[in-house]
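Course assignment 3, question 2. Fill in each field.
Student: A.L.
Task: Predict the tertiary structure for the chain below.
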Amino acid sequence: MSWKETDPVALWKTSSVIPNTPEVNVFDKGQPNFDIQKTRLWKSLREMSSTDQVDYMQKVIKNWPYRSERWAMEMAQHPVIFGSALSSFYITNRVAANIFLNKPKAGILETMRTTSKAPLFVMFYASAFMSYGFWEVLVRSKFMDTQKPCASCLLSTGVTISVCTGTLFPLIGSPILCYGILLRQLGDDSKYASRNLFEAFALCNEFTKYVKPKMPFLIALQAGLAATAIYAHDWANQKIFNTFDVDPEIVTEAVNYEEPYSKWKSGLDTVIHTLQKPI
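Answer field:
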């Protein structure tokens, strides 16, 4: 067939049909799609018990080469603990000023100089240790598990721990502790002691009424610190577990790295691991 017999319209229709080819993304760097369930490292982790998984991850994180991720997993809860202890110290100081000095607006330093320091330090350290223990067992240990934790679900747990140890606990404990010390100083504690739960509740409410206007600020502070720590843990968790597939040699080096451990830190880790064991 010569070119004279060719139908130009049919030729144009044929050439205008674009084949259905997949679109190529020039910005695609060709990142591999790893299946984490099939890797050897993940398989060995799945076969471990929950306690062994926590021990393994503790060692990996302690020797993790990337500082930002290691600090996000190890140090993010420290502002929460310090915030709870400081909030408890402030509430106890205001309650002590009301009970011992009968001056709710007395300065913090004046209250520390002229009143018993036992309630301040007892509530400070009690809140710090309670916050640390609950956070390690109920929050941080969840980010050590091979199953990806729900950060939004743990957010409520973290905020509850922070608010309870930093505000609710000193609101209840500091009036009772300060009032008990006051009764011992008076000598005759039977005359002024509360005789039932209603009287104890009334005393706590009376002694804390001047610090209650500060509660919204303290609760917001505790909630903000807890939320920041939760999402810092979640970010570090994603980074570390993604590295398990990309570069497993880093994990092996972190596990095999031996660092001298002090006796007190080793004992503290033993206590924490014991508390983290499933009941």
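Instructor remarks: Residues 77-143+156-246 form one domain. DSSP finds 13 helices and no strands in the chain.
Grade: pending
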